[in-house]
Amino acid sequence: MRATFLLLALILLSCHAPAPALALPPRPPVRCAAGGGGGGCMLSNAYGAWSSDRADCPVSAVVYPASEPEVVAAVARASAAGARVKVVSGFAHTIPKLACPGGGGNASTLLISTARLAGVEVDAAARTVTADAGAPLRAVIDAVKARGLSLAAAPYWEGVSVGGLVSTGSHGSSWWGRGGAVHDHVVGLRLVAPAAEADGWATVLPLRRGDELFPAALVSLGLLGVVTKITLSLEPRFKRSITYEYRDDSTIQDDFAAHAARHEFADITWYPSQRTAVYRVDGRAPLNASGDGVNDFIGFQATPIAVNAGLRALETSLERSKNVRGKCALAAAESAAKRLAGNGLKNNGLLFTGYPVVGYQGKMQTSGSCARSPAADLLSACGWDPRFHGIFFYESTAIFSPARFRDFVLDVKRLRDAAGAESLCGVDVYNGLMVRFVKASAAHLGQPEDSVVVDFNYYRASDPAAPRLSEDVWEEVEQLAFVKHGARPHWAKNRLVAFAGVQGKYPRWGQFAAAKRRLDPRGLFDSPWSDEVVAGVEADSGDGCALDGRCVCSEDRHCSPGQGYYCRPGLVFTEARVCRNSVSQNQ
Length: 587
Description:
Shape: globular
Oligomer: single chain
Strand order of the largest sheet: 20-14-16-15-23-24-22-25
């Protein structure tokens, strides 16, 4: 217990201590053996594990173009050779293995990195910014801010490239204007696609709103070609005012829509085990409003490596000992620390002193200070950096129609009553259930209606064959979302089971598929890894496949009967099949 209290104290200290001036930046996603990018290269994501498996992705060759002509040349060479091609940014935070070209055996594969394709140009008169696909989101925001303008939408995590965030449908939160999804603010883009020999093996397509292929190219998942440039619409610079209001969760299913309608950048964080909902009251403020606030979300700050490793060791110990009370104590400490620190908001950029926190859009709309730390201090890093055995988690993101979201909330509350509130503490250790809002989109693979996005993180075991504490509860929540209530999965997140039947959840999937056949008829930008996501077909039925989210159990062997976990019906959604810890096989 002494170690537990010490680590809980470290949580509080890490939330209130000034962020390290220097910290270790994330590792690059592509690592090659001596000799450069000609062979022996491996691709991994920022978490060190994909949703489909935990193996790095081998690639035959990697290129780092710094201009569109160099991209055209790379695609042309691959097209002429019939090689499989994929694109990766300098960040690689996508959880499904979409960036792996696959192929297997002696198949030729090419990985195109956009890490050096990073230019940004602002047209103040037109109120647009044109960014190369590999440009970091933070660089784009800073360039826009310097010209007295604002980008209206951005994801909450800034450690992404512009091409990556648009291609996977990344978003912030808003039902106002064009909404919270960044791709809905795109006015033009340039796409390099494979071509026939007569056309030089590659072609450049400049696309703008109104063009036939534009809705397919917006959220393309890297399946149509290589996006090289993206043009986004801008607004005059504005300020935001943010206050977090803590309430009990008794009415969340009834007032979420009014909250989103009332506040332009509203969201809600629901801590179900604590019966608490945190309403983000977030909207525009007058330019002359006092304040120069900064959003530096606690979870995205550089944290001492020893603290990250200690917290992971504590959570793993609680999991192995099935210590539900300890898990709930950890969740309560995390929530209390975030509340005291304003969740990372800082008045005048230094410390949190109280609400509201007012600041310019460029400093308030996104965060991720751990992603832009120079390599000068080996003591701090992003909490999930796989080099340092820190936090390791699943991230499930379900996108609902508003009516189905209401029913989902009520079902989760019924599950809480049936399983006990303490069984839901695992998600509250991270960030509860984050509820955000996006508008209906023109993109074929964007949202077909105004939607509610629910994102929740929870413990992932280091051993894929290890069962988890309250595993059955979170598998039932997952199936409540994606099966019973028909939620659509976020393309860049989720365990593989979330993508079952995904094509039927997007009404314009056929139009996207037709565009894909037109632009890449030979399937050069396909791979077995992207196929398992977009096809939404369960591919694994081996022993233990349900433990890591590669299948929904239908037999006990899909769980871990040797460790007392058997395939059982859900407690509330009885059609669900979950891995439940039971004393005997007959329970």
